Amino acid sequence: MKPMEEYIQENQETAVELLRELCRIPAPSHHEERRAEFIKDWLCAQGAEGVFIDEAKNVIYPYEWEEGRPVALFMAHTDTVFPDTESMGVFEKDGKMFSPGVGDDTANVAILMMVAGYVAQYHPKAKCSVVFAANSCEEGLGNLKGSKALIKRYGDNLCQVISFDGYMDEVCNCAVGSMRYRVEVKTEGGHSYADFGNRNALAELAAVIQKLYQYQVPADGSKTTYNVGLVKGGTSVNTIAQQAEMLYEFRSDNLESMNQVKEYFEEVINAFRADGLEVNVELIGERPCGRKSDKDPRQESLSAFCRDVIYEKTGKMPGFTSSSTDCNIPFSLGIPAATLGLCLGEKPHTREEWIYVDSLKTGFAIGAALVLERFEV
After folding, report:
1. Does domain 177-287 have CATH number 3.90.950.10?
2. How confident is the model at residue 221 (pLDDT cuts 50, 70, 90)?
3. Short-list 125, 107, 116, CA closest to 46
4. Which of 64, 300, 314, 354 is the most buried (most CB within 10 A)?
């Protein structure tokens, strides 16, 4: 069997070209089908058996899977934060690769595919069942649909989950939970001159926002945030707006703090309703909080292992962090999990996002080491 080190050395350009191809395939949340089909076909061409796409558009490659056997899940999300359904393009300059979503999370998908390709070609003996998944719906209002489907499918047997996401300078070992809402305000509206004095939905929504922004986050060492990310409504400059809406979220790495800001949000909404304002609230996304690494020795061990592998391959000790990732789901269920990246770059969630192409070689080695720990090699 070819040593992994030799495989990595021989396939550097293959990994880079695979990344280029993936970047050219648009994959907004809930519409990852084109990338999913490409990934499935690519894995099958490497000799992977039993690859399938599930109802959530996850591409799943189960290796030596047996009912009741412990499962190690390795995943990376295929969707990008951008809504584009046409190719956003990719170009390279000065050792950097530029493309929206290139580091979050396309580079990590490419490396996961390369490691899975090695397993498919050389058939190492696994210590447990191993599942590779290019999963859907991590970004935005995808609401972790892909991760939830994977945990539902394998959850009873999962011994660990590692999600490749972001950059290699941190290990996420605790979930930042979030709740996201669409809040709509309706009023009688009218003509801006003839009906002056009628309530304006935009003005009323602005008052709701002002009140929400008076919330004081706790100073207890946890981090709690809130944000109004989009506001729209009204008809024209000479119309008193009858309808306005916003998207609002709050986040925290502490469940008690999450509950407190939720209570305040509900109090504000109920107070405006009590004054006769029609306010409609729709929950459009919810991500659970997770657990700190020191509460479970299995979690502590996995977090330390990920940190040590990164240090071994880079010479730099990564920090631990809390974040909102696909691992929110296993974290919330007490399943040992970690999220880490396999590249280096800047400007994620912008159209100017880029990565260092040379960082893929190191990321390839990190990803391979984490996966091969579950094999007898």
Report:
1. no
2. confident
3. 116
4. 354
Give the C-alpha separation, 152 to 356, whole Å.
36
Q: Where are the alpha helices (DSSP H) in the chain?
A: 4-10, 12-23, 33-45, 107-122, 145-154, 201-212, 255-274, 297-314, 328-332, 359-372
- Chain centroid to CA 206: how far? 30
- Please give the single-letter amino acid code of residue 147: S
DSSP for 284-328 reads EEEE-----GGG-HHHHHHHHHHHHHHHHHHSSPPEEEEE-STTH
What are 141-184's pLDDT values in tens digits?
Answer: 899 999 999 999 998 999 999 999 999 999 999 999 999 999 99
Q: Out of 3.90.1640.10, 3.40.630.10, 3.40.50.2300, 3.40.50.1010, which CATH number does the structure's domain 4-175+289-372 have? A: 3.40.630.10
Q: Are 321 and 167 in contact (CB under 8 A)?
A: no
Q: At which residue do the structure tokens 């490691």 appear?
A: 115
Angle between helices 12-23 and 33-45 (to 10 degrees): 150
What's the pLDDT tens digit per position in 249-277?
A: 999 998 889 999 999 999 999 999 999 99
